[in-house]
Amino acid sequence: MASIMLNHVAKHFGAKVAIADIDLEVEDGEFLVLLGPSGCGKSTLLRMLAGLESVTSGEIHLGGRRVDQLPPSARDMAFVFQSYALYPHMTVRRNIAFPLIMRQFKWWFHLPIIGGLAKRRIERSPKVAELVEKTAKVLSLTEMLDRYPRTLSGGQRQRVALGRAMVRKPEVFLMDEPLSNLDAKLRTAMRGEITRLHNRVGGTFVYVTHDQVEAMTMGTRIALMRDGVIQQFGTPREIYTSPANTYVARFIGTPPMNLIEGRVENGTIRLGGTSLPLPAALAAAGRTAGRDTVLLGIRANALALGAPGGAGGLAGTVSLVEHVGAESVVAVKLSQVRTAHDEEGAVPGEIMVTASGYSDLKPGDAVTVGLDLSEAVLFSRSTGVRLV
Ligand code: ATP
Predict the structure, then answer these.
(1) Which helix (H) or strand (E) holds 260?
(2) 274 CA to middle of ligand 1, Å?
(3) Atom of ligand 1 nearest to the CA of 11
(4) Residue 226 Cα, ligand 1 centroid: separation in angstroms?
């Protein structure tokens, strides 16, 4: 197990800045998730940790030891790829044992008969055989040890790739979107499996994904990236409840956090023609904005739908209703206030409200949206940064 420290790490590909200037400290035994949209630099960062990509500047320390100038083999990190990278002509047993066999590598391992016999001997040695059996048991692969990768399902292949990483007992596991080739159901099952693996074997995990659900459910901490810059580094809960800026607020959560334009005045927030008292902490944060426009960040489940004409709420018209089992997600186009939902696919002026059960509302229905401000947050309209 080992802590990881990144000190002003940057990566440039010619004129392209893939990683701007990253400082990050990951504790021993953490499950760090690097999260962000395609092209944000998360794979590049992981590859620099592994030594598969050089750093343009900065330092990487593993367990207090500087490693950025060391080759991958000297870093004690195991990499699990999206494509699994299993050897198709080797059994599951040999695939898992492979790193242990290669530890005792001799040049004549390449020779057809002698090399084959030598590898077999190592594979059958009590120490290696025991470790492979033990690893297979943890990953429920015992029955499959003598099969070939092509006869396994995607999830089973993924487990073999994990097994191959585990036998090395590395200080750090690096995983680049390991579940993205699996169907939705298997992905959910493997998510739990990797979390359990982390709990059982310990070790520091660094896991790259663009899937916020994976990040929220697996990570002890998440580094949310955009354009080579970390937008926020925190626990899933911190990132969900206290997003550092509007980008994080809109990236995390389904549906994303609603951002409604308003103005703070004497401990209240004015949203169009409606004035609502702010909780004390929010009123204090709002004061820092002075007379500037702010954005009220509020989650869909802190909003409630009422009959039209209700007091203390925002008037709007239902534009879409999605039934998702235990609840319905209702899109409401507000009539008097503006939103800051300007990313692709978002409709300006439209907010999302969750209603429990099967909502009978239909597009075109007039409603009043009530707001529970106890868990709301405020952002600066001009910078997008959360006001505290
Ligand atoms: P994805 O989820 O699509 O894999 P990512 O967040 O992992 O994306 P990276 O693969 O790290 O992103 O790429 C970050 C940026 O650096 C991208 O703009 C990419 O085009 C660029 N990049 C990556 N590798 C190279 C390279 N070898 N040469 C030039 N540019 C590169």
Answers:
(1) strand 258-265
(2) 46
(3) 16
(4) 12
**Counting runs of H as helices and runs of E as strands, what totals does the chain give?**
10, 20
Q: How far is the CA of 35 from the centre of ligand 1 (A)?
A: 14
Q: Return the CATH fold of 4-241.
A: Rossmann fold (3.40.50)
CATH class in words for 255-380: mainly beta
Which residue ranges in the chain fall short of pLDDT 50? none
Residue 241 gets which letter from DSSP?
Answer: H
Distance CA(18)–CA(55), nearest Å, equals: 11
Both structure tokens of 315: 């008037």
Q: Is the dihedral of CA 288, 237, 246, 351 positive or negative?
A: negative
What is each CA distance from 272 to 267, 333, 358, in whole angstroms?
16, 14, 30
How close is the Cα of 48 to the center of ligand 1, in Å? Answer: 12
Which of 9, 11, 12, 16 has the most ligand 1 atoms within 8 A of CB, as the residue to mutate? 16
Q: Is the ipTM of this complex over 0.85?
A: yes
Residues in the ligand 1 pocket, defined by CB under 6 Å: 13, 16, 18, 36, 38-44, 210
User: What separation in Å is there between the alpha carbon of 18 and the centre of ligand 1?
Assistant: 7
Considering the chain, tell me which residue range(s) the CATH 3.40.50.300 domain(s) occupy. 4-241
pLDDT digits (tens, 9 = 90+) for 65-100: 999 999 998 888 988 877 778 889 999 999 999 888
Domain limits, CATH 2.40.50.140, in the chain? 255-380
